[in-house]
Amino acid sequence: MTLPPIRSQHEPSTSPSAQSGSALQSLGKFARQHVKLLRQLGWHQFVKCLQIPFDTTDDLASIPHPAAPYLRTLATHGVPAPSHSPPWTKQQLQTVLNRGAHVSAKRLYREFLFEDILDMVQKGYWTVLPFSAVQHLTHLKLSPAGVVPQRSRRPRPIMDYSFTGVNPQSLPISPTHAMQLGHTLPRLLQSIAYADPTHGPPLLMKLDLADGYYRVRLTPQAALELAVVLPGPGNSSYVGIPLCLPMGWTHSPPYFCAFTETATDLANHALLSNHPWTTTAHTLEEASQAAALPIMQSFSPTIVHPPTMHSQPPLGLVDVYIDDFIGVAQQPVQQAVLRVMFHAISRIFRHDRHPDDNPNRKQTISASKLEKGDGCWSTTKTVLGWDIDTARGILKLPQHKAERLVELLQSFKGLTRTSRKKWYSLLGELRYMSTAIKGTSYLFSILQSPLVQQPTASRI
How many Cα atoms are found within 13 Å in the side-chain-facing hemisphere of 120? Predict the structure, then answer.
């Protein structure tokens, strides 16, 4: 059964309040459509109907990788979210419902949240229903929706699954070993530092997945476990139910990384084995190089190789940080690295469109990031929050981050006591810096000691 035709966009308005009203009205129409469909199909089939089409490929089980059967199971049945807590009572649900969404969602970014949720509903990543339509479902839990502002980017909706205990009560069955997040930058820097300079400066490029987490589906039961309270019209509230991995759930990163890390393994294996991918052009290959960026020919690496060191083949490597794929290569293998990256991603996430596809969904690899030149090879690139210049051997913080660190350090000048929250913020910033400054990881014991010696104090 298919849904009634819907508009991919709503009419533009002249004010934020009008936009909010328009988006809210459109969400109300979707809610009424989905309530009718839910009554016809029942919860399980209702969710399966909305989740079509899949964003993963149909033949995941056949990829040459040990994780293939596991990924196929997740793609076919969805990601589970079992909990060790008993089903919530009506009183628990009503308490969270009465409290409603976070202030950021109810007031500060109300208009934006309506616009964003409408976009996600149109793409088939979320559904919005009145509480009365789902309150009887056994596995329903509720968490507040929130919005986090971001520098020079649109705000990001994030669901607070920790506030109501959903995160700590979720059983730890996700593939946490799939997350290699803390090692990505050191691996890249090491490969650049030890590259053979006779092949010229290493080149960098990036590919970003659009709507990353939303490419992986949830089971119908998990969707209920991860439902959220949205601000509704008047005193009523809508319940937003994710059909795919949501932002804010503690197990979304490992499940998603299981797919992206597998794609990275496929790419690196293809490079080592001279796979046909290295010579087969991809449909996005030309577009990724449209924004030509400067490539410095002079190479002055900061590490001097021993004179007895044998020459090495040109560097060619693919790495990933959640949904950011990073390529590093020396001439002349950069073309092969580019191709295997595109092909490996398309082997996991479906790239070619079919007639039945949702027209509102973006292509898997972000077209906007390609237009900005992220996919173009260059010796200078901002990678994982650092400005890297491979030709001159320079690693530095972007200006706004350096200014933020100075401001944070100045705020502690002359203080003998501070709040636990502010101290955590400082330690988080310093640990981020220590990733690229060797030796600093051993200097944190004295900074951690107040937290250990005063485990329950709000001020230290």
Answer: 25
Q: How many CB atoms lie within 10 A of CB 216?
A: 23
Token representation of residue 190: 């090491």
User: Which letter does DSSP use for residue 52 in this model?
Assistant: P
**pLDDT per residue over 376-390, tens digit each?**
999 999 999 899 999
Edge-to-edge strands, sheet with 203-208: 203-208, 324-329, 316-321
* Category of 152 on φ-ψ map: left (φ > 0), alpha (ψ -120 to 50) or beta: left
> How far is Cα 102 from Cα 92, in angstroms, rounded to an integer?
17
**Alpha carbons 87 and 169: distance in angstroms, whole number:** 12
Q: Which two tokens stand for residue 368?
A: 């906007």
Encoded tokens for 56: 């993963």
Q: Would you tell me how many other CB atoms lie within 10 Å of the CB of residue 14?
A: 7
Instruction: Count CB neighbours of 390 within 10 A.
Output: 28
Beta bridge partners of 342: none
Q: Spell out the domains of the chain, with CATH numbers in brackets.
A: 16-175+216-252 (3.10.10.10), 187-210+259-396 (no CATH), 400-453 (no CATH)
Q: Is the peptide bond before 53 cis (omega within 30 degrees of 0)?
A: yes
Q: In Å, how far are 59, 60, 370 from 63, measured between CA atoms?
A: 7, 6, 27
* Size of the chain, expressed as the number of residues it contains: 460
* Measured distance CA(375)–CA(209) in Å, rounded: 12
Q: Is 145 exposed, middle or buried (0-12, 13-18, 19+ CB in 10 A)?
A: buried
pLDDT tens digits for range 192-246: 999 998 898 999 999 999 998 999 999 999 999 999 998 865 545 789 999 999 9
Strands of 236-313 (E only): list them: 237-242
Taking the C-alpha atoms of residue 212 and residue 390, their distance in angstroms, rounded to an integer, is: 28
CA distance linking residue 9 with residue 412, whole number of Å: 48
